[in-house]
Amino acid sequence: QVQLVESGGGLVQPGGSLRLSCVASGSIFRVYNMAWYRQVPGKQREWVAIITTGGYTNYIDSVKGRFTASTDNAKNTVYLQMNSLKPEDTAVYYCNKYPLSTAGSWGQGTQVTVSS
Alpha-carbon distance 89 to 45, whole Å? Predict the structure, then answer.
């Protein structure tokens, strides 16, 4: 069972930046498409960014041009660079396989709070 550990969240002012990291206990990024998801209380978890084994990326419309997903297979790590953050980006962020129906165990996530 692959374990995923997210980090890099925090409190940032609107317009600021954060880089999230997700470290996997095994080399899954070469085998599975991955996604960054986020969840706010009372709402369903939603995917934010997808990165395929071939390096193709896609983003939900609300983060296009601001977020960038990438992987470092040597480090078993997937990243999410988040720029020009907005209060509506506030959520707990997770990484896992994509699509959601294939997701394995969830990590603890990392809290991102965008507030002045």
Answer: 13
Neighbouring residues of 82: CB distance < 8 A, sequence distance ≥ 6: 17, 18, 19, 20, 63, 66, 67, 89, 112
Sign of torsion over alpha carbons 6, 12, 15, 16: negative
Nearest residue to 4 via CA among 26, 34, 29, 24: 24
70 touches 77 (CB < 8 A): no
Going along the chain, which residue ranges are E strands? 4-7, 10-12, 18-24, 34-39, 46-51, 57-59, 67-72, 77-82, 91-97, 110-114
For residue range 69-89, what is the model confidence (pLDDT) as tens digits? Answer: 999 988 999 999 999 999 999
Q: What is the CA radius of gyration of the chain?
A: 13
pLDDT tens for residues 27-37? 788 889 999 99
Q: Could you identify the residue written with the tokens 């997701």?
A: 103
Cα(113)–Cα(64) distance, integer angstroms: 19
